[in-house]
Design brief:
DNA primase DNAg catalytic core, N-terminal domain; six-stranded mixed beta sheet; alpha+beta; DNA Primase, Chain A; five-stranded antiparallel beta sheet; 5 domains; 598 residues; 24 helices; Dna Topoisomerase Vi A Subunit, Chain: A, domain 2
Amino acid sequence: MSGMIRNEDVAYVRENVRIDDVVNDYLPLKQAGGDQKKGLCPFHDEKSPSFHVTLSRGYFHCFGCGKGGDVIKFLMDIEHIAFVEAVEKLAARIGYQLNYEGGKSSDYKPGLKSRLIAANEAAQKFYAEHLNSPAAQIGRDFLLKRGFDRAACESFGVGYAPDEWDALTKYLRAQGFTGEELEVAGLSKEGQKGMIDRFRNRLIWPIRNITGEVVGFGARKLSEEDQGPKYLNTSETPIYKKSQVLYGLDRSKKEIAAKRQVVVVEGYTDVMAAHLAGVTTAVATCGTAFGDDHIKVLRNLLMDDDAFRGEVIFTFDGDAAGQKAALRAYEDDQKFVTQTFVAVEASGMDPCELRQAHGDAALRDLIASRIPLFEFAIRTELKKHDLQNAEGRVNALAATAPMVARIKNKALRPEYVKQLALWLGMDIDPVLSAVTQIAGKSAVVKNDPVIGNWRPDPKEPTLILEREVLKAKLQVPTLVLGWSELPANSFSHPAYQAMRGAIEAGAKLENIENEELKSLFTELSVEPIRSDGEISDRYVESIVARLHEVAISRTIADAKSKLQRVNPNDAEYEGLFTELVALESQRRALREKALGSI
């Protein structure tokens, strides 16, 4: 069939493109033993890497979501492109000339995404060349005023869109691109007399995807006569999704992964200034707020030793809009497993202005002086109140207590209760009380490290079995014969874990100091056990055995997950497999015991 790539060429590409090189363009891989590498799966959210690449076979497989295949399939899935387009991109990667059945016929069309990327790449060269034209003097002056010389502009591919209606459109049409392709790419649009350029008399920054391909542009106006917005970005296209792209990520991804740090700035010139000053982990969003999709991209880069590490540093302008952006980031912060910080210059200068006024060292010092995002958000709110009088402090507490109550990290929340009391100049008790009430608790004692809804819901289906066994142990302890054999992970809720600890320590109601634990102790001691009729030893034996079985099932799931990540050729694999077989046998016995006791 005309236009089809020859099978032998497909085979050559598949065998000669290293799959780990391609995957590394999208996520960092680490050695996983033998000829295997692993990383966080780019196709689903996960906290532990289950995405494996086997070099000798050229295959990838995710033990979490099940996706797998060869290097061609990976590129098809990650880029959402067709088979032919994936083969063409990989062939171009190694400089291999593809042959098509019957020759590459005139009616053959490469994939749409390849054509759009090619159009953007050609446009970038066009814009870059025009930055040196006499008409672009206003643009060059703008850049020089902000500390960017010709070498810096060439490094970042900065260009200039001529102040003409259709200069780029004519150029690209002459290169063989159709009007439809240019419109879909967001480079041209329909005017009253035909296709015209989308960007005119503007400085142009190319926006690249993580692999370095130009997928869109950011354009800054240079004339007050321009009635458009200050910055105008490419509209969303099949290759450009602004919520999934970070400007500068293509050049900073390796540094981000190596240093386990990413600096999020607000604009294109801020990224340039940061990189030129030595902050080579800087990126920026492209005309949209920092959101979930950006977080997913960064999670892949900040993974180290099977865990998320490092730090995310936001820089914002010191004005009201910048502070609003910081507080918006505060809402997203708890989606990170990393530490999150804010760096704001005291006088309100952005990174580009700071570098221009005080040099590279000042910008590096700004990043080094970062403070935790939680602290920045809370103290920003406190500035709105007069803390010199009682009314102001009470109002400030009412405004900031909800911010502390939303902190999900159990270790951090009590620390910020203490910090808030210090910043307010108040005793810790009223601050703790305010945070606790907002978190949904009616009472808490100082020796309870957990602030929040500590007590579990009695009707929670996944916790009923744990609750029943605890009630049996408190109410009919002589019937609970398998208590000492229950594994450590038998109780999943912190409250029930604490109750088990108290029981095993021989605690009596009057000796328990923690009021929440004492209340739960009383509640479980009197709550009726869910049994039809008399509570028998067979019934108690069955629920204890069932709880034991559930705990073993959790251990089996963990063992299977670990086994999937171990090379079958490693010595560790055999030991894990033997352990898994023994656990399965134990689970079957417990299941039979539970059923036999009913």
